[in-house]
Structure formats: C-alpha cells, structure tokens
Amino acid sequence: xxIWVDLTTSPHVLVLRPVIESLRARGHEVEVTARDFAxxxxxxERFGIAHTAIGRHRGGRLGAKALGLADRSLALTRWAxxxxxxxxxxxxxxxxxxxxxxxxxxxxxTFDYEWATVQHNVNCRLAADVVLPDAIPPExxxxxxxxxxxRAYPGLKEEYYLADFExxxxxxxxxxxDPAQPIAVVRTPPAVxxxxxxxxxxxxxxxxxxxAGPAQSVVLPRTPEQRTELERTGRFVVPExxxxxxxxxxxxDVVVSAGGTMNREAVALGTPVYTVFEGRxxxxxxxxxxEGRLRxxxxxxxxxxxxxxxxxxxxxxxxxDPAVLADLLLGAQPWxxxxx
Length: 340
Hints:
Number of strands: 14
Mean pLDDT: 90
Number of helices: 14
Order of helices and strands: EHEHEHEHEHEHEHHEEEHEHHEHEHEH
Oligomer: single chain
CATH topology of the largest domain: Rossmann fold
Strand order of the largest sheet: 3-2-1-4-5-6-7
CATH architecture of the largest domain: 3-Layer(aba) Sandwich
Largest sheet: 7 strands, parallel
Structural class: alpha/beta
CATH class of the largest domain: Alpha Beta
C-alpha cells in the first residue's frame, strides 16, 4: 500500500514515528508531509523522518484557523494529487482529512483528548476510522460523527511510542544540569489552542514558585514568542532547539505541564507529574488522576520537589507494540472489544 502520513505539530512526530517504521517494515510505501509549527520540522530531522514541509500555523483565533485549514488543505491536495495513495493518516490533523476527502482517499485519525470540539467535528466526520485509547467513552465522540468508526486500544499512546525508548543521561550535561540536584521540567500551555488559552494565572504562579528554588528548572516553550518571554526572565533553562525531552523527563524529579502529551510521557516513564491544564479534563487524564498516576495542581505551594532515585528500570515500564496502532489506523481488525 501507498500510505500518506501528515504531521501538524510536534507531539505527532513522536506518536507516529514508530507507526511509520512499522508500516515500512511490512513493505508499505510511506510518504510524510509536515507543517512548520512548534518543533515539528526539527523533530522530523532529529528522528530522520524524510518529509515534505507544507504550510505553517496561521494563529489561534477561529478565523485564522479556518484560513489555515483551507490554505493548507488545498496545498496538501495539490501535492497529493496523482500520487495514488491508498490511505491517509493523521493525529487529529484536519488538513489531511479534508485533502484526503477531496481526493477520495480513505483516511484514519487518532487522538486522545476528546473535547477539542472544532477539530473533531471535522476529522471525525471525514475519517473512515477514529483510533482512540479505551479510556474514552465512545459516546463522547458520537456528536462528532464518529459512531461506528471508533477503534479503541488499551493503555496510553505514550506506552506505544516509547516502547523502544531508553533514556540517555547525556541530556543533563547538554543542558548544564547537575544530576545531584533536583530537576523540574515544565511545559508551557498551548497558547494558540482554541480549548486552552495562554492566560493561565496558575501556570505563571508555578513559574514563580520554581524560580524561587530549589530545583533547576527547564522550561520547554511551544512558540518563539514564549521562548523570548522566558529567556527574558533569566531564571530558567530554555533550550533553543528541540531536545531529547523524553530522556530529560526520565531523569527529572518532577514534571509540570499545562498540556497533555508530556504529562502522559512522565506517567509512562515513572516521573512524578502535575497537570495545570485549565480546560475540560479528558477521560485519559481523569483515569490517570483516579489511579494516582497524575496529580492535578491547584496550589503552587503544594508542588513537591524532592530528589528521587534513578529512572525506572526497563522491567518496571509498560511497553506496548506500535504495530497495534498501525493495524488500527489501516482499518485492520481491532483488539477484542475495541470497536465501537
């Protein structure tokens, strides 16, 4: 089969990398397009994913998003026409779903946060298959047009794409961190997201708490504007380019994130983690909080920063086969009980 994969933001590179590798290992021909946003192109280069860069982010307002969707979808359509793809895949990418529909290419989308209403009203209606973690009740997706399309998988997506991951302690030296002292890793809110505004007073208070010590605090911005603002304070380590964030998380003593993917990476790697997400909690985070694997932070003073032992051993981690996700995205038979 000829398969098209579209990457629109940095976490999508992490999630779909092993899927791409699994598909190619089976003899499928895979071509990748990527949007110039956050560290998406940098991560493609870091992981050696050959790609065609198409389009950029147009901003967070609804009108700008609509313009960006139209422009990039048409650009993808022009690029893909005549390439004879059998299947198009994306991680919540509306652009590729629209383009695939225009070209009559069967498509599949995957995501693990169900309350991005505008996004899912597009991709769930256009996709032939919607691949989700089994923590999400399928009825939450029915209003988006996903009834009869949902294919569920067990566990966290991070347990699949981190299956072959082993932490590299060299990341600490590259960032000038002392492994004997506490290390905090912070991920900024998705400033341009419709479901989470950057005006997050709690997140600002967390930064103030960390700036006062005792931890060495690494803040990972999503946009150049965020990086500039953080660098101006002079109080944090702010990497200039995409880094081996998973190794950093594995060696950190605490993670605080206003998004989702980094929180769940910390859970998968056994690092204590707090969420300061101010939007509506998704089912995956609800489950993790109920299990005590993720803590919701409402008071910066409650943030515990304690030096912990070395990262989890290989035997302690849950590792799942990315081929399961590849099968579901191709429309293959789901694991027992996984179709809705």
